[in-house]
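Why do we care about 3D structure at all? Because function follows from shape, and shape follows, mostly, from sequence. That is the central idea of this module. The next example makes it concrete: a single protein chain, its amino acid sequence, and then its structure expressed as tokens.
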Amino acid sequence: MDTSVALTIIGSVMILLGLVKNLMPKKFNQIVMGDLHEAAVNPGAAMRIVIGGAFIAVGIIAVYCRNLPNDSAAILLTGLQIGLAVIMVTIISGKLRGFMDDIPIPPIFIFSGLIAIGYFAS
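And the structure:
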């Protein structure tokens, strides 16, 4: 796979995830965590918005850099792969540390797919 295509896909997915987290943070939290105590709804939504903003930032960086020369794009893709792996580990650690009942499967599949795209393109 071409590095430009890989960066476009990774960037688009990250921007989309970030937008969903920003446009409906309370609904997103309710889907992921169930019903929260009333006092936790707004702080949880605020945290979700910040996470969404970080996802959008990563996505913009990936899309903006999609026309880099292949050597530079491969370095960026490697960095993105490491960053996405760190996100996956932190998600899994929530279960291992007892903060969640289950590991949320959709983000594991999404980030695994994005890491694979980056791996095959770099």
